Amino acid sequence: MNGLADIVTVVLVTVGALLFLAGTLGLLRFPDTLSRLHAISKADNVGLGLIVVGLLPQATSLTGGLKPVCVWLLAQLSAATASQLLARTIYDDQVEP
Amino acid sequence: MQVTQTEAGIRMKGTVAARHVLPSALLVRACGLLLLWIILMGPAPQNLPLGLVASAAGVWASTLLWPPDGTISWIGLVRFLLRFLPQSVLAGLDVARRAFARVPDLHPGMANCRSTIPGGLARDSACAVMSLQPGKLPVAADPDGMLHIHCLDLREAVAAQVAADEAAFRRMLKPERRDG
Amino acid sequence: MADFLVAAALFILAVTAIALFRILHSRIAAERMMAVQLLGTGGGAALLLLGAASGSSAIADVALLLALFAAFSCVAFALGAAVPTVRRDSQKERS
User: Domain containing A39: what range?
Assistant: First the structure.
């Protein structure tokens, strides 16, 4: 394990963790439900992505490195679709009652 | 919203039934799914038969959900990803900047924008992609292609951003998919 | 390196727990549903970090399943939320 790989990991994981903090802060501070959904779906996703990329230099095998990438891709897909579906539900509730 | 979703479903089923299936496109999908299986399960040979069955089932499911003629151009996909990934990171940093500000830096509200993407699966995907781009979250789409977008900051040029996002997305679609 | 990764995992777990606490006390059903998505990303990130710290690759499978369940449950929620809306509309038409 060389020094440069460790530095990359530390930097990317730290930024990723800060993005999770930003997601939580946005959730606590943003005024309406849809804005809070922005915070969750965007910040947390990028946080997960940076952590996955940051862990790549620590991977011991090819599949061991690719599996977290699959987790991230699935989380991306799921975040995009789920935030769409939740946003529609929230919007319908706001318009119709 | 129910109505548009059902319409999209009917339209997609119609295309599957009406047009013949390209075997080469299905083969590409099967190989991709098998590769995914090997990444997830490891390359042990005794697992491969199950992987073949699983990828065959995956291809069958994909023909129901994604018309086989709805192919995308690979160069377009790469160019799209080269734009999408930095934008996605920017979206996260943008939210972070607003959340960390002393007073949350927000001017949230709804904006309406006409979509130039053909309706159905293509437009739904474009909306899903747009929800990971900075400051925008499409919440509903009228049947005539009018998008209702929730924005974190209405002071930004939302219409221009949406047009740029959609142009990047459209380059990925092959011309014959534009019949909508 | 392992200590740093564990610390980062604990930090993310703490931050996610605060957000979960806030979300689960919301009165809006869709906001409570955002907790599932949060659990998918935050829990997934913490698990991946712990897996890398302990060198066990099996934890990545758990993270994968978390992300998968988050996706499915959000779809199920949206489908379930759509049904009462339709029923409400048809009752409105009848009355």
Answer: 3-95
Nearest CB to B137 within list A38, A47, A49 = A38
C-beta separation of C42 from C69 below 8 A: no
Query: Does the distance separating the beta carbons of A74 and C64 come in below 8 Å?
Result: yes
Length of chain A: 97
Strand partners, B147: B113, B141
Rounded CA-CA distance A79/B131 in Å is: 9
Instruction: Give yes or no for C95 touching B (CB within 8 A).
Output: no
Counting the structural domains of chain A, the total is 1
**What are the pLDDT digits (tens) for B123-171?**
888 888 888 888 888 888 888 888 888 888 888 888 888 888 888 888 8
State mean pLDDT over A87-95. Answer: 80
Check: pTM over 0.90? Answer yes or no.
Answer: no
Contacting subunits of B (3+ beta carbon pairs below 8 A): A, C
Q: Do A81 and C40 meet the contact criterion of CB atoms below 8 Å apart?
A: no
What does the alpha-carbon distance between residue B167 and residue B19 come to, in Å, rounded to a whole number? 27
Counting Cβ atoms within 10 Å, is residue C91 exposed (0-12), middle (13-18) or buried (19+)?
exposed
Under 8 Å CB pairs connecting chains B and C tally to 6
Nearest-Cα distance to chain B for C42, in Å, is 14
CA B149/CA B139 separation, integer angstroms: 6
Pick from B62, A61, A76, B84: nearest CA to C44: A76
Burial class (CB in 10 A: 0-12, 13-18, 19+), C63: buried
**What's the pLDDT band for B9 if we cut at 50, 70, 90?**
very low
Q: Looking at chain B, which runs of residues are DSSP E strands? A: 109-114, 136-141, 146-151
Phi and psi for C22 in degrees, rounded to 5? -65, -45
